[in-house]
Every structure is written in structure tokens, then in C-alpha cells.
């Protein structure tokens, strides 16, 4: 279980940094690539490479609410 969470966090960081780098090279707003990558690897597709439930658990909704409020 611990290896899976570590692999998911590593994948998130790698894809986030890679998306930022690619967006700067293509001269696109970075949010475009970050959104596309997030939808592809996130819980909204059948792949589910990254599952937020074991990563954040019960803190997911309070963290989202706090982020939106800021």
C-alpha cells in the first residue's frame, strides 16, 4: 500500500513538472496542459492511475473548499 501511494505522488510530481515544462516550450498557458493531464490520469477516466481517496482520504473535500475559498 505504501509503495502505491509513493508511486502515485511521484507520478503526480513528474506529470506536473513535465506539463509545466512542455507548456513553456510550446508557449501555451500551463493550466491547459495541467487540466488535460489531470483529467487523463485522474478519477474521471477508466484508467484511474491516480486515486485521490487513499492519498488524501477524508481531507479531500475540506482541502478543496479551503482552496476555493482562497
Please tag this protein with its features.
mainly alpha; 4 helices; 70 residues
Write a structural description.
The chain has 70 residues and is mostly helical. The chain has one domain (2-69). Helix content is 74%, strand content 0%. It is built from four helices and no strands. The protein has helices at 2-26, 30-41, 52-56, 60-69. It is globular and about 35 Å long. The protein starts with a helix and ends with a helix. The model has no long low-confidence stretch (mean pLDDT 82).
Unreliable runs: none
Element string (H = helix, E = strand): HHHH
Mean pLDDT: 82
Fraction of residues in β-strands: under 5%
Radius of gyration equals: 13 Å
How many helix segments? 4
Oligomer: single chain
What class would the helix/strand composition place it in? mainly alpha
Number of strands: 0
Shape: globular
Give the N-terminus to C-terminus distance in angstroms. Answer: 32 Å
How many domain modules? Answer: 1
Specify the helix fraction band.
over 70%
Summarize the biggest pleated sheet.
none
Amino acid at each position: 500500500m505504501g509503495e502505491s501511494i509513493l508511486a502515485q505522488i511521484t507520478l503526480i510530481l513528474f506529470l506536473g513538472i513535465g506539463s509545466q515544462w512542455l507548456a513553456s516550450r510550446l508557449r501555451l498557458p500551463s493550466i491547459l496542459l495541467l487540466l488535460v493531464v489531470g483529467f487523463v490520469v485522474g478519477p474521471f477516466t477508466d484508467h484511474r492511475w491516480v486515486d485521490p481517496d487513499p492519498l488524501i482520504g477524508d481531507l479531500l473535500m475540506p482541502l478543496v473548499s479551503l482552496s476555493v475559498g482562497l
